[in-house]
């Protein structure tokens, strides 16, 4: 290998490393608003990138729901109902108190700045035929240590995984 080629190869590898490093940093810490973070989460969700969504869950949520449980639940639902999310809009950020947030998520432990954002979207699904409907929901976020975290109600998954529901499914 000649010197010129080596330097080009080293430069290319360094550039690739920097691009991937920047992407990792920007995904976790570059959001300056709850709306930007909500858009990022829902874009990943719509693209079925559930591992990225889970990585942005709050620590308290991760302590009650494993990555494997969350990803399997979402993959099964997307496959079963042929889900497709489009026209995603995140609006109306509102700061809320710790007490309001805690009333929604009793497992909340840590402080931070708490927000809600409204997420609206068009969902296409298959259930007794193909259907489409507009939907909206309130999403809860915490900003802690200069980055946002997602809170989500784990009950649908935990209920599905409970011994009682497993026994009912096997009946």
UniProtKB/TrEMBL annotation:
It comes from Halanaerobium polyolivorans. This is DUF3887 domain-containing protein. Residues 1-27 form the signal peptide. Keywords: Signal.
